[in-house]
Amino acid sequence: MKKVSFAQRLRQALEMRNMKQITLSKKSGVSRALISAYLKGDYEAKQDKIFLLAKALDVNETWLMGYEDISAERSDEIKSEDLLMEAASDFLLGNSNKHNDLMKKIALLDDKDLIVVENLVDSLLKIKD
Q: Per residue in 38-66, pLDDT tens?
């Protein structure tokens, strides 16, 4: 099923977003040297780096890994999960300014989404320990 190399997709995503390697490095937190190595095909990114790169490029992680028949665009569901993860991280790290915004957003969620939030918070707490 995998047809396109990670290096090709990363290059394609940079072109689609009209982004330079240095900008991607700043937005993703992945070093410029590592991005360069990915583009040369020297290494394939591990899942944590794929997530950071895909988020910075606003592309689907599965598409970035080279799988075909997958849209390059990140789904709204993934973007919502990213926002919730970011808000939960801020809350756990003591950024109280975002606490109220987070609570307002959580109040709007249905039961299914609340389970996702609970799982995300549990994951963050495990990472923090």
A: 999 999 899 889 989 998 998 988 889 88
How long is the chain?
Answer: 129
Q: 């915004």: which residue's tokens?
A: 101
State the pLDDT confidence band at 9, using cuts at 50, 70 and 90. very high
Closest to 49 measured CA to CA, from 38, 85, 107, 97: 38
Tokens 């020297």, located at residue: 42
Q: What is the pLDDT of residue 98?
A: 59
* Residue keyed to tokens 């959580």: 106
DSSP letters for 14-73: HHHTT--HHHHHHHH---HHHHHHHHHTS----HHHHHHHHHHHTB-HHHHTTBSS--SB
Entry pTM: 0.59
Closest CA to 10 of 76, 79, 82, 60: 60
